[in-house]
DNA sequence: CTTTTAATTGACCACTGGTTAATTATAGTG
DNA sequence: CACTATAATTAACCAGTGGTCAATTAAAAG
C-alpha cells in the first residue's frame, strides 16, 4: 500500500524548495500549502515532513536565500562602472524590481510582523537595510541624514507594496517605477552638497 | 434546544459591525472570522447570516464607512485655518494616522488586490485618491505633476504599510511619521514655484 | 388568547490546512 | 541473501473556515 519511488525520482530538499518558489510566483504565501506543494511534486504531503521539520522551516530557508540574493544585488549595483547618480537610481530601481519579481518572498521579508516571521528574519531584514543605507550614503553627493535614507527606503517600499498583486512582473510597472525613482532622486538633490 | 434571545438582547447590524471593528483593531482581517465575531457577541454564527448575506457584505460595509471617514478627514484638514504648508503637512500626517489607527481597514482599502476586494471598493479607493491629489495640488505653491503627487501618495503608503503590524497605534510612530513627512515636503519645495 | 412573523439556534456540509504515527517498499551493506 | 537504515505512503487527527437550513421560540399583531 505504499510504494516507494525509484532512486531516480527521489525527493530532495532542492526539489521541494524549487516547487515552493514556483508556487510563490503565482500565489501569495498564505495560499501556498504543504499539501499543494506535494501534489505538484507528485508525492504525498507527508513526504515533505521527512525533509523539513515544518512549514516555517521550509519558508525560512527560502527567505534566507532571498536576503542573500538581495544583498548580492545591492553590492553588484553599487560596484558597477556607471557614475554615482546612475548607480543610485539603479539601486532604487533594482530594489523595486526585486520586490515585484519576488512578491511573496518580499512579503515574508519585509511585510509580515506577525508570529510567522521570527526574530532571525527580522535581523536579516535589518542587515539588508544596512547594506542599502550604506549604498545610498556612498553613492550620494548630498548630505543625507539617517532619517532621509530611511524615508527613501520607505518610499521605495511603498511602491513595491502598492504594486504587488496589482502587477505580476516588474516590467508592467517599470515606467511608473522610473518616475517614482526620479521623484526621490530629485528630492535627494535638493539637499545641500557634501 | 434553540431559545430565542429577549428583545433587549437582540442582535442588530450595528452590533455586528461594531464587534467586527473591535476585532479589526486586534487582528488583521484574514484572522477575523464570522464564527469568532459571533462568539464574542455571544450568539451563534448562523445569526449573523440573518443580518448579512455573507462575509464580503459585512466587510464591505465597514470599508465603505472608512472611505467616507477618510474623505471627511481630508476635507476637514484642507479647510482648516492654518497656512497652506501646515495644512499640507497635516494632510500627510493625518493620512498616516488614519492608516495606522485602522490597520485592518486600511489593508482592505488600499492593500488587497485579490478577489476579496471587488471593483466597487477599487472605485472608492480611486475617489479617495482623487480627493487626496486635489488637496495636495491646491495646498502646494509648487509645480507638481500628476506623477509627483502619485509618488507622494506612494511614499505615504509606504510608511503605513511598513509600520502597520509593527506599531499598534499612530502615536508609537508619530516621531518617525513627522520626519518622513518633512522629507516629502522638502522634496516638494525643491520643485519650481507656480 | 391565538396566529403570524422574525430572530436565533445548532446541526450539518464541504472544504483547507498542518502535523504525526504506523506502515511498507526500496537501497545499500555486510 | 538477509538485514538494516532510509524514504516514502497512507490515513487519521485536530482545528479551523464560510455557508445553509429546518426547527424552534420570543415577540408582535390580530
Molecular structure report:
2 copies of one chain form a homodimer. Chain A has 194 residues and is an all-alpha fold. Chain A has 2 domains: 11-51, Arc Repressor Mutant, subunit A, CATH 1.10.10; 58-189, Orthogonal Bundle (Tetracycline Repressor, domain 2), CATH 1.10.357.10. Chain A is 70% helix and 0% strand. Chain A contains 9 helices and no strands. Chain A has helices spanning 13-26, 34-41, 45-51, 55-78, 84-101, 103-111, 119-139, 146-163, 174-189. In chain A, helix 1 (13-26) packs across helix 2, helix 4 packs across helix 6 (103-111) and helix 7 packs across helix 8 (146-163). The longest helix of chain A has 24 residues, at 55-78. Chain A starts with 12 loop residues before the first helix and ends in a 5-residue tail after the last helix. Chain A binds chain B through residues 28, 30, 110-114, 147-148, 150-151, 154-159, 161-162, 164-166, 176, 179-180, 183-184, 186-187, 189-191, and chain B through 28, 30, 110-114, 147-148, 150-151, 154-159, 161-162, 164-166, 176, 179-180, 183-184, 186-187, 189-191. Chain A binds a DNA duplex (30 and 30 nucleotides) through helix 2 and helix 3.
Amino acid at each position: 500500500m505504499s510504494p516507494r519511488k525509484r532512486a531516480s525520482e527521489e525527493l530532495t530538499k532542492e526539489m521541494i524548495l524549487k516547487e515552493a518558489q514556483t508556487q510563490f510566483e503565482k500565489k501569495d504565501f498564505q495560499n501556498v500549502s504543504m499539501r499543494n506543494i506535494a501534489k505538484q511534486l507528485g508525492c504525498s504531503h507527508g513526504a515533505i515532513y521527512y525533509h523539513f521539520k515544518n512549514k516555517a522551516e521550509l519558508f525560512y530557508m527560502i527567505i534566507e536565500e532571498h536576503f542573500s540574493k538581495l544583498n548580492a544585488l545591492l553590492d553588484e549595483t553599487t560596484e558597477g562602472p556607471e557614475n554615482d547618480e546612475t548607480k543610485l537610481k539603479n539601486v532604487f530601481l533594482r530594489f523595486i524590481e526585486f520586490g515585484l519579481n519576488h512578491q511573496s518572498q518580499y512579503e515574508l521579508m519585509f511585510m509580515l510582523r506577525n508570529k510567522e516571521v521570527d526574530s532571525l528574519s527580522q535581523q536579516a531584514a535589518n542587515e539588508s537595510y544596512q547594506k542599502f543605507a550604506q549604498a545610498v550614503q556612498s553613492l550620494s553627493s548630498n548630505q543625507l541624514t539617517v532619517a532621509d535614507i530611511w524615508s527613501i527606503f520607505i518610499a521605495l517600499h511603498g511602491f513595491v507594496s502598492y504594486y504587488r498583486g496589482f502587477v505580476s512582473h516588474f516590467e508592467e510597472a517599470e515606467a511608473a517605477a522610473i518616475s517614482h525613482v526620479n521623484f526621490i532622486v530629485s528630492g535627494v538633490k535638493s539637499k545641500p552638497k557634501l
